[in-house]
Amino acid sequence: MSKHLIGFILIDAPYSALNNADRPKDRPNDNVVVVKTLKKGRRGNIYPYVSGQAWRNWWRTTLEQEFDDWNNSPIDREDKIAYTKVDPVKYDDDDVFGYMRAQSEGKGQEKVDLTVTRLSPLKCSPLISISPQIPTNDFGVMARQEGDPVPYEHQFYSCVLQGIFSLNLSAVGTFSAVNRTGYKNIRPDYIPTIKAAGGTRENEDSPWVLPKDIRVRRCQQTLEVLPFLTGGAKLTSHLTDVTPKLIFLAVLEGGNHPFMNLIVEEAGIGKLSLSALREVIDDYGDRFCDAIYIGRRSGFMDDLDEKLTELSGNNSLPCQIVYDSPNKAISQLAQRLEDHIGDTP
Question: How far, in Å, CA of 128 to CA of 141, rounded?
Answer without folding.
Answer: 30
